[in-house]
Amino acid sequence: xxxxxxxxxxxxxxxxxxxxxxxxxxxxxxxxxxxxxxxxxxxxxxxxxxxxxxxxxxxxxxxxxxxxxxxxxxxxxxxxxxxxxxxxxxxxxxxxxxxxxxxxxxxxxxxxxxxxxxxxxxxxxxxxxxxxxxxxxxxxxxxxxxxxxxxxxxxxxxxxxxxxxxxxxxxxxxxxxxxxxxxxxxxxxxxxxxxxxxxxxxxxxxxxxxxxxxx
Length: 215
Known about the structure:
Layout: E1 2-6, H1 10-22, E2 26-31, H2 34-44, E3 48-51, H3 62-73, E4 78-83, H4 88-95, E5 102-106, H5 113-124, E6 128-130, H6 132-139, H7 151-161, H8 166-173, H9 177-190, H10 201-213
Helix pairs in contact: 2-3, 4-6, 7-9, 7-10, 8-9
């Protein structure tokens, strides 16, 4: 099985290379961001690509956007999303159209190496491998976007709606500015707001929030 790995964490990336190589897989290339992933797949045409969701430069949805593009450009290449983030809407994007050769596993819920390898082989062969938690959330994803947020994320987007900057939000919630950035990025993901050239997701997130909470 020929594999390309896209993971921005060097330690995790090198660990996966050692793991897959020891299990008889051929790792053709590794990538640290979405652009490198697309280039590596175009050059090597692997059987399957392992992709994280959040990658540079913004660490929000670059990986999943690259995965969707990869499926469009190379429909014969399987895509296994391997992430710590359970976002049903992103799984739905991958499954749109032809759902064959797609997987979405959560890092903390893969308890055995053999399970990961088996899922990888299934995806490479054109099958589907979805974490049961992802399936459950997809089936119940009729909930409002606001219901997807944690209590802290709701606090953050509420302060965003009041016009506070990340620095101001950090001061009010007594957390680091970096923590605020992570919460904001998570809000963007859960509100299904992909990156754009104009990068007006902050405004869109506030509009979505205000529409949900009502007058």
